[in-house]
Amino acid sequence: MIQDLVVYAVFIGYAIGVLMTFGLVLTWVERKQAAVMSDRIGANRAYLRIPFTNVKLVWWGLFHGLADGIKMILKEDFKPRTYDWYAYAVAPWVAFTPVLLVFAVIPFGGTLEPARLIPPLADWFGDRTYPMQIARLDAGLLIVFAFGGMTIIGAMLAGWSSSNKFSLLGALRAGSQMISYELVMGLTVLGLVLIYGTVDLGDIVKQQSGIILGILPAWGVFLQPFAATLFMAAAIAENKRIPFDLPEAESELIAGYFTEYSAMKMGLFMFAEFIEIAIIGALFTTLFLGGYNLPFMNDAGFVFPGNHVVELPYVLVFVIQLVTFLVKVFLMCSFQILVRWSLPRFRYDQVLRFAWKFMLPLALANLTVTAVAVWLLRSVNA
């Protein structure tokens, strides 16, 4: 139906707009947050001039991201003489596109009822409702790991096709590191799958709107605090950020697997990294922080301990859920940047040892304890 096409076109446009905005804003946040932590001023030179005036809009250096984008578009697209031309050209897109696709299965709001949200269109939409999620798939969590794993191929293609020993070494590091930590990420979320009994991200968020122990929201971070810590550490390593940035390691490998890239091809690799920060924040929010809901909140309003119900107008709930999701994601992005400017880089052998000899056993132990606890609770309740 045409109504469905319109709604999902709006969802797709909203998702792309949010991710692109996060990618742009996070480049500024990284500079400013690093400057604050280092007692510096940070980016403050790029500006927009109001036409026919001498008024310059600096806005704390917010336009530096736009300046970087324009610079990369206008720079020469240098190509090395010896490379596999097809793999070299397609690698940035293989690294960039799956990052966007992951957001398709992440719920960024509750249930959309167009007739209640826009009364003049009530007759056209009727009683149709839509979960605010581009692709409502039963296997949503599996799709996340399927698309997330494709970025490894982009890094490997880029390093191999560049015919550069530093690029190849960076690609080898990227492949081994990303595979290692993706395994840890998968094991950490299995505990949540056991508890919630589904891999549908929409259902996982809805189950987190309940209450546990009479007073706490049923967020994943309260049910699986250890898994939440392991997941965030593994996700930062998956994104190849300090202290896990060995595939790039400027002081060792120049720029790692994309050393031979320039102009917008290099920009795609760098932009994908910042968008992936937002994706990690969105995933952590969805799995461990109640998704788009505030504590004790659902699609109808609030249900506080003691079964005290506070109903809210639909439009207010709709706005609160959208804003709540964006704020949570932004806070998790800021935390990742805080980590990036706080810790020193590991050695490469330490990165792999940390994954296989430390995080993997802890993830397995957490999964075992969770499985036993779930079995005991179900046996008692049965």
Name the descriptors.
9 strands, 6% strand, two-stranded antiparallel ribbon, three-stranded antiparallel sheet, 64% helix, 382 residues, mainly alpha
Q: Could you walk me through the main structural features you see in this protein, from its secondary elements to its overall organization?
A:
- This protein has 382 residues and is mainly α.
- It has helices at 2-37, 64-74, 85-102, 114-117, 122-125, 140-161, 165-196, 201-207, 220-223, 225-238, 250-253, 263-288, 314-340, 348-381; strands at residues 48-49, 56-57, 111-112, 130-131, 211-212, 216-217, 297-298, 301-304, 308-311.
- The protein has one domain (83-381).
- A hairpin with a 6-residue loop joins strand 1 and strand 2.
- The protein starts with a helix and ends with a helix.
Could you give the topology of this structure?
Elements: H1 2-37, E1 48-49, E2 56-57, H2 64-74, H3 85-102, E3 111-112, H4 114-117, H5 122-125, E4 130-131, H6 140-161, H7 165-196, H8 201-207, E5 211-212, E6 216-217, H9 220-223, H10 225-238, H11 250-253, H12 263-288, E7 297-298, E8 301-304, E9 308-311, H13 314-340, H14 348-381
Antiparallel strand pairs: 1-2, 3-4, 5-6, 7-8, 8-9
Helix pairs in contact: 1-12, 1-13, 2-12, 3-6, 3-12, 6-7, 7-10, 7-14, 10-12, 10-14, 12-13
